[in-house]
Specification:
Structural class: mainly alpha
Bound molecules: adenosine-5'-triphosphate, magnesium ion
CATH topology: Serine Threonine Protein Phosphatase 5, Tetratricopeptide repeat
Number of helices: 9
Radius of gyration: 16 Å
Helix content: 55-70%
Mean pLDDT: 95
Distance between the termini: 8 Å
Order of helices and strands: EHHHHHEHHHH
Length: 213
């Protein structure tokens, strides 16, 4: 029977699997950023998550600490816009689950909610601005709905991954209003936002690694 909570070991597995997925998708993320940015998103994320993976080799004391270590490692290794934004995502997630030894769907939803609020506060972007939020906010919305419907955790994670992927695809026609892509104006339309792609991957890996045991 599948477990209905997320454990500390699963959080480590999630972040490490994401680091691997970023490495595997480095070229793709770079290509997306070449189209509407400066072509460094794949390299930025890969550098940051390689540092994270190294820090997490020894595991971690608790869930909040693991997420905090992740956010701090990103902050010290990745510059530009994406690094601090991903750092904020993990630091705000860490804050929301302080003191918890495992996470229910409600805990996970609260954590993603705090993470999304942090990213919005830091980047001053909103839904539809063609950023990572266009994957993050639909994923959060799916989690809130699943949480209200009391769905099993694994189903909720799958729904949030689907919503993030849908949100990522839905950035194609959008005109960017934030970051370097916004300099392109209408020419930013017709491409997936790189940050939305890396965020959709974060939720896909969550669905694959969490609530599995
Ligand atoms: N203000 C913002 N709020 C939320 N996300 C943002 C913001 N600005 C940029 N992003 C996200 O960051 C991604 C780019 O990350 P990258 O690692 O390439 O950093 P960067 O090159 O410094 O950023 P940029 O070229 O957008 O200024 C974008 O695709 C977008 O999803
Ligand atoms: Mg860039």
């Amino acid at each position: 029977m599948s477990q209905n909570v997320i454990t500390k070991d699963e959080i480590v597995a999630w972040v490490l699997a994401y680091a691997q997925a970023i490495s595997d998708n480095r070229v793709l993320l770079t290509e997306l950023d070449v189209a509407i940015g400066d072509g460094d998103h794949g390299a930025n994320m890969d550098r940051g998550f390689k540092a994270v993976a190294q820090k997490l080799q020894s595991g971690g004391t608790d869930i909040s600490q693991i997420l905090k270590t992740t956010g701090m490692a990103l902050l010290s290794t990745v510059g530009g816009a994406g690094g601090p934004l991903y750092s904020t995502l993990f630091l705000q997630a860490a804050q929301a689950c302080a003191g918890k030894s495992e996470l229910s769907l409600q805990d996970w939803t609260g954590m993603i909610d705090n993470a999304a609020r942090g990213v919005m506060a830091r980047g001053k972007a909103a839904a539809g601005d063609k950023t990572m939020l266009d994957a993050l906010l639909p994923a959060l919305q799916a989690l809130i709905e699943a949480s209200h419907a009391n769905l099993p955790l694994a189903d909720a994670l799958l729904k949030s991954a689907e919503a993030a992927e849908h949100g990522k695809q839905a950035t194609i026609p959008l005109i960017a209003h934030k970051g370097r892509a916004s300099y392109l104006g209408e020419r930013s339309a017709g491409h997936i936002d790189p940050g939305a792609a890396s965020t959709a991957l974060l939720f896909l890996i969550a669905a694959k690694t969490l609530a599995q045991s």
